[in-house]
Amino acid sequence: MDRTGQELALAVVVPVLNEAANVAPLRTRLAAALADIPHEVIFVDDGSADGTQGAVEALALGDPATRLIRRHGRRGLSSAVVEGMCATVAPVVAVIDGDLQHDETILPALYRAIAMDGAELAVGTRYAAGGSTGAWDPRRAAISRYATRLAAPVMKTRLSDPLSGFFAIRRDVLLGLVPRLSLVGYKLLLDIVASAGRPLDLAEVPYTFAERSAGESKLDSAVAMDYVELLVEKTVGRWIPAKLVLFSAVGSTGVIVHMAVLALLGMLGADFTAAQAGAVGAAMVYNFTLNNRLTYRDRRLTGAAWWTGLASFIVLCSIGAFANVGVGSFIYDLSGGGWVLGGLAGIAVGTVWNFVATSWLTWRRR
Q: What is the DSSP string of 55-101?
């Protein structure tokens, strides 16, 4: 039941991080837009430091339909939204950003598409007829269009705007998909349609994306990497962990660094052994730094932990190097002199060891 005694029909989940200035205006807008729909609004906070939680609590004291979920020790927009959606009994759940950039006036249309018209998923889209990205500059619009095209191969349901963060879904459909969701990064909608084993009954409602008026954008390079990891997870993740793919990609670029440093030290007059040692060291530092920045951005090491992490990475990868040589030599002898087979076997074993060992010890979850 909602505060009027009517049966709860809709829950709107609002993931927030440092959005204190936007909480009250958004709640006012949602109340106006959903005046005829029994609803609740669930703010899910990932540890804001600007008073966002206090702002939500102040609203909730006078409004039982406003709720707050505090998350500690974990972050991520997708997981925050799912946690909020799982915390309600409303038959329809929706998500809207806490930055006032989504047009809350189309929420009734999203709700009706599910509750009355039989859709399983209703998406607010910027790219269908009547929708717009608003005042985006050409570069941002081009990047968004390109990212949208990249999503096409993994979608079971054809969407005009698979990167939208503004949609509604039948709660029972969402709960059935939760065990299969990757919950990587910001693009929960894409995760949902990629995880569904069939096309979902879809409705799309166009809207115009607004400019942020307060707070700071959360878009950065980590968001882009989250998107890449999600795409990898939904294409080859059933066979190979996405982080192993990223770890291997970083290692491949490390080969270029190794050879460049080897050539440079050779030109400076170092003998091969010294140059090789310097190249190995440089490549290890490079691999650690890039993996810390990209592959393990959710567990990024900083300060003193960066140096202890580097030390453990070097030790563990040195063991991996010995495993590489040992296994490669064994396969070489077993195959009667197969250089390629021995080399690839050594690389595979060394890479898997390095990935597993460093995931467990260097970038272990705290």
A: HHHHHHHH-TTEEEEE--S---HHHHHHHHHTT---SEEEE--TTS-
Residue whose entry in the numeric block shows the structure tokens 């209703």: 122
Distance CA 229, CA 312 (A): 25
> How far is it, in rounded angstroms, from Cα 210 to Cα 247?
37
Q: Which amino acid is it at 323?
A: A
Q: Cα–chain-centroid distance for residue 297?
A: 11
Q: What's CA 105's distance to the chain center, in Å?
A: 27
Residue with tokens 């806490």: 98
- For 67, what's the count of Cα atoms within 13 Å in the CB-facing half-sphere? 17
pTM of the model: 0.74
The DSSP letter of residue 194 is H
First to last CA, the chain: 39
Query: pLDDT for 31-51, tens place per residue?
Result: 999 999 999 999 999 888 889
Which tokens hold the place of 299? 């567990």
**pLDDT tens digits, one per residue of 198-247:** 899 999 999 988 876 655 554 555 667 777 777 777 777 677 788 888 88
DSSP codes joined into one string, 222-273: HHHHHHHHHHHHHHHTTTS-HHHHHHHHHHHHHHHHHHHHHHHHHHTT--HH
